[in-house]
Fold this protein.
Amino acid sequence: SADGRDVEVLARHAKRAALLAYLAAALPKGSHRRDTLLALFWPESDIAHARAALNQALYVLRTALGENAVLSRGDGDVTLNGDAVWCDVTAFEAALDAGRSGEAMALYRGDLLEGFFVTGAPEFERWIDRERARLRERASQGAWTLAEERAAAGDAVEAGRWARRAAELAPADEAVARRLMTFLTGLGDRAAAIRAYEEFASRLAGQYELEPSAKTRALADAIRKPDAWSAGAIVMDAALPREGPHPPVPRTVVGRRRVAAALALLVGCLLGGWFVLRPLINSSSTPRIVVLPFTNLGPAEDEYFADGITEEIAARLAAIERLRVIGRTSTNRYKGTEKTIPEIGRELGVDYVLEGSVRWEKSPGGAARVRVTPQLVSTKDGMHLWARVYDEPLDELFRVQSDIARKVVQALDVTLLERERHAVEAVPTHNIQAYDYYLRGIEYWRRGREDRLFRAATRMFERAVELDSNFALAHAMLSLAHTRMYQQYFDRSQTRLASAKSAVDKAFALQPDLPEAHQSLGMYYWARASENDYDRALRELAITEASRPYDPRFFAARAVLRGRRGRYPEALVDIARALDLDPASAAMTSTHGELWDLTRDFARAERLYDRAIALSPDWAGPYVLKAGLYLRRNGATAQARAVLDEADNLGLAESPEIVFNRILIAIYERKYNEAITRLSGTPDVFADQLRFAPRAQLYAEVYGLMQRPHVARAYSDSARAIVVARLGQQPEDPRLHSALGIAYAGLGRMQEAIQEGRRAAELRPINEDTYQGYAREWDLARIYAMAGEYDSALDRLEYLLSIPGYLTRAWLRIDPTWDPLRGHPRFKNLVGQR
């Protein structure tokens, strides 16, 4: 409003806010037909109700913003009064048109209406998508203008930053990539130019399964040659070899390339003369830094405190766009290491290391103090760039963390933006005891994915917000803890989900721009797991990206989410970016392998599983995935056994995942007595996000294969009783309906079995969740096969083989579940046995 206050009547109603945004930003500027507005915002309503809704919305806008804010002309046109309502989109474009690029780029803070969603207005959503792309292209042009201006002024650092920003806004445009490479080389930063090429090549491979054109590869080769870039060589781009045949690029990319290529050639020619006349400027690209775990000089029970201090300092630095901070997972590998700083630098690809020590001095008779001794070291030569000893009262801890971050930034000659300065200087709570509980919660959170650890972390975060109800960050983490409890099936109650939403709502009420709150809300929508919720989750993560551009956890989470939506090329780009920021993360490496595995690129997946095992040899997950890969690739049960033997030798023999997969391999090898032996003493239920398999169900399967139907039926009935009891608590759990369908099929209750299998697939449709939905379709195929509905089973199997997923022809050949189908001509054709 005119006095700077939020107009809550608009902010709380998405469609009214959307209408205001459209009137302000839509092209052409000026009047908008009412019929157009009706089609955009109320497409499913009849004319009378739609017109009434529009009139009501316009009335609310005028009431909130002033009678002259929205002008109408009869029943036809509606216009937003630009003198009464200011809009950043309009101001951004006006500044660009007037040649004020700096002013314009200060207004451009990300995609139009990022994270905004309106129910029941698909045409409006499509308009947003188009406008986002158009404005992003204009912003890229504005960034290039600033890059050229700063280069002409001799400011190579800022010129390089704006050039990279321009390229980030057009990530799929190959002409822009070449322009960036040429520009950075002209600034004297060939290393940055080659890094830009490698990032573009990785993105192109992951997103489009293409490689850069011959022209771009030739440019990269030329840049790599130390003597290739003599004076005037900046214009060599026009003389590079013509592009030979290469795979086609999507049409939308080609169109932008034609425009951008002409602009790039023109700018290259104009800049060429400038570079002939002035010396090359040496500039550094974005500095890469790792914050190693600070050494705890106090008692062992204070280890969590030192780790928390380390992570908080790293988080403050990670909020700075011109710094790349390596993720925590990679840094933990160097805790107590004897490796030298240059060795760490080479292994992580970083330029600087921040290390230090922490001592929490607790005084029974006086105020506690904290002593922190940070030092910033160059990995190139081990030179200390900055060091200091802080010895302060404990309640000055946040000032100490902020000062360390500021001193690092100053030492690296990085200028802070205003929003970055706020992030660096943030004080999350004024209650040190609440902060202590928060750090304890983080420690439990990091230890693993077990039920007891999540519950302990939740208790710590709850205690933190009890001590300080205004501790927004603790509310955000409390929400995330509740969500993970629900998501991991430790507590699937609606109460748990409601607690997650309540906590994140509190975080937003306290601090609306808190990145961790957006991340927690995204994870909440993910846990709810419907089609629209996944899209909302992606929007919230996109907001997180804007303020945490180099947070690997964000990219890893979005990679998994995009994979679940079936967007594998984008997911692969995200996970590769996450690993660039956290290269020693076994979890992210394993996820990268799993995404390739699901797309059936087994060679890449195998290499990544091997690396994940090397990074974390005491974690069962990568062993299980690698063993499954051998079953999927060629049905090699012996190779799969060897992988699990390797896990056993490292003390993982009792892991439920390992035990379950050994039972499966015994079944696939038709060693049924071994399977029964291994089943004795196992948990009553094997459960994860994909399955709920009572031990009785596995016994029923094995005895059925051994042609002992009476024993199999008895175990099927036991499995039925277990599943029915659990369904009473979680009636909407699709895993349970699949399990009940399999139990009913084992009892000969075929109609009920099929009904339950279909119910599971309806609860988690594959078009909404390609990960869990795939498992439900697989189980439904199994139920159809058990019920003698062979064509229905084959319909499902053919479909599952046609899309990314775990099922393969090799797996079908070894799994005795499908023995009833082996004589069917369609099955023979499906597995390649005809």
User: Anything to note?
Assistant: Residues 228-284 have pLDDT under 50 and may be disordered. Residues 122-152 form the longest helix (31 residues). The two ends are 73 Å apart (CA to CA).
